[in-house]
Write a structure and sequence with these properties.
Length: about 550
């Protein structure tokens, strides 16, 4: 899928003039992040950004430690101050893309320089001796003291998708060391690709690109959990390493990792699983759901709300974006992602209700009442999931690969339930796009999907609709200086994807080169917070939806 440049579109002069409005909003948001989020009074004099800002309190967002943690872990296991300013380099990768892209669009070097300085600090001051970075799901930096903190002692990336091209441009050697260490630390057995979402900072972890591979059966017990949220980050990192270094071996291992998930695909339905191993102490789905569903119920075959978001939204977006950046390098991955979307359209998504159903990969539907006993799965995870912007974005990118009429029908149904109107029975058919509607579910992915439809069809009416969506999202979340993380919220999360999606809209309206992609990332920090127990920063601090919501 070679991307069509935005300069192929010819929007009207009045629509082009709107780009100035959107660009002004983006510049104010970026300026707020640069002025508030760095070199904060009372904090360390370092160029790293705070993750977010409490607008009402005019102060950086803090994490307050829960004094009572897990009973078996001592204070050294957590290493969290009582109160600290959260600064997590892995949760600033969309911000880096925005600042870099803003400089490229405007010619103003200041935003890019701020991103470079922050990224250089992460790569040069927050890199462990074995090459891993102190960032991600459990590691961060207290901006007040300038010291490393952690909620667990391991490295974790789950759907973070860092800006590796940008990081490589800042410090290629440090980025290479991290990419190698990421695979070395998370892959426990290269012959089987047994892996874990947690990687050790304490031991040397050389990547073993020349190791043999036997491709064993799936759903076997493992010491680690092979969540596709981590597997996708490993695939993403290996493809980038192969492309940036010119070494084909990492990309070959990315294909092998993807092949492990491919081996979970049900031959009848075409649905594939979220993981290819099970918990070493026993399959938790089998223990909880087995009495009702038998051998079909495995951790790797259960598709709850989180899995529906990841397998049919975030993971395929990542693959299609890799293919756009490195055409021809990931053809096998693209084929598997297209098969996922085709299977979702046939078995998971209901175009009449707009819902995706929780199910087993054999097609057996699940609902909240199927949870008969306590265990790993809560009843809420099996509630039907309303289709989201990420599903539409994934479907549009998938259709763009080969213009498959079946995928167009899927896009058409998703667009209709998203409140976008009638996009046409075929891609060249007449349309009746909604121009004045509003949807609570519209987000950066919705905006990107409509922009991509305009680019791929050459129909400028999609850009007119994208501009309407952009204005609606600004009205809901922009307070005149910064985007709040949720409408009416008091906090701003600087890694917000919406300003970057709006920058894509600006360049599409102006016919300028594309910025870096809006990744399907949902970067989170996970730990114990006072009064709340074990929570994610995205949901507890910023009010973003939980997986079961």
């Amino acid at each position: 899928m070679v991307p069509r440049p935005y300069d192929l579109l010819r929007p009207s002069a009045s629509l082009t003039a709107e780009a100035d409005f959107f660009l002004g909003v983006i510049r104010r948001h970026a300026g707020y992040a640069m002025s508030k989020g760095r070199f904060i009074p009372g904090c360390a004099e370092i160029p790293l950004f705070a993750d977010g800002w409490d607008v009402g309190a005019d102060a950086p967002v803090e994490w307050v430690r829960e004094q009572k943690q897990w009973g078996w872990a001592d204070d050294a296991y957590f290493n969290l101050p009582d109160r600290w300013v959260l600064a997590n380099g892995a949760s600033q990768q969309v911000l880096y893309r925005l600042l870099d892209g803003l400089s490229r669009v405007t010619g103003d070097p200041v935003p890019q320089a701020a991103a470079v300085a922050s990224a250089r600090f992460v790569l040069e001051e927050m890199q462990a001796p074995n090459g891993l970075l102190y960032w991600g799901g459990h590691q961060a930096l207290d901006l007040r003291s300038g010291s490393r903190v952690w909620a667990q002692p391991e490295h974790e990336l789950k759907a973070h998708f860092p800006a590796y091209d940008f990081l490589w441009s800042v410090n290629a050697d440090a980025t290479r060391r991290f990419l190698e260490a990421c695979w070395g630390a998370h892959v426990m057995d290269w012959s089987t690709l047994e892996m874990n979402r947690h990687g050790s900072y304490d031991t040397p972890v050389p990547a073993q690109w020349d190791h043999g591979f036997v491709d064993p059966p799936v759903f076997e017990p493992s010491k680690g959990l092979s969540f596709i949220s981590t597997g996708s980050d490993l695939i993403h990192s290996a493809v980038h390493l192969g492309a940036l270094s010119g070494d084909p071996r990492p990309t070959a291992w990315a294909e092998r990792m993807d092949g492990r998930y491919e081996k979970t695909r049900n031959v009848r339905t075409g649905l594939r699983g979220y993981q290819f191993t099970c918990y070493e102490e026993g399959d938790r789905a089998m223990m909880q759901l087995g009495p009702e569903f038998g051998e079909a119920a495995k951790e790797g075959t259960v598709l709850g709300r989180h899995q529906l978001r990841m397998v049919y939204g975030m993971a395929p977006i990542m693959v299609f974006q890799l293919n756009r950046r490195h055409p021809g390098k990931v053809n096998r991955l693209v084929g598997h992602a297209l098969a996922d979307l085709t299977a979702a359209a046939r078995h998971v998504f209901d175009g009449e209700t707009g819902l995706l159903s929780a199910m087993l990969t054999d097609g057996t539907r699940l609902n909240a009442t199927d949870v008969k006993r306590l265990g790993y799965y809560k009843p809420a995870v099996f509630k039907p999931l309303p289709a989201e912007g990420r599903h539409l974005h994934a479907a549009v990118l998938g259709w763009s690969v080969g213009h498959d009429p079946k995928l167009w029908a899927y896009v058409r149904a998703l667009a209709r339930v998203a409140g976008l109107g009638e996009i046409g029975k075929e891609s060249s058919a007449p349309r009746c796009l909604a121009e004045n509607g509003t949807q609570n579910g519209w987000n950066a992915d919705t905006l990107m999907a409509v922009i991509e439809l305009g680019v791929e069809t050459g129909d400028v009416s999609f850009l007119k609709q994208a501009a309407h969506i952009g204005r609606s999202l600004i009205a809901a979340r922009f307070d005149g200086t910064v985007f709040r993380s949720v409408p009416g919220g008091s906090r701003a999360r600087f890694d917000d994807p919406l300003p970057l999606a709006l920058l894509h809209l600006v360049t599409a309206l102006r016919g300028q080169p594309r910025p870096d992609d809006v990744p399907p990332a949902f970067a989170q920090f996970h730990g114990f917070h006072a009064g709340a127990g074990r929570v994610y920063d995205t949901t507890f601090l910023y009010g973003l939806p939980k997986d079961e919501d």
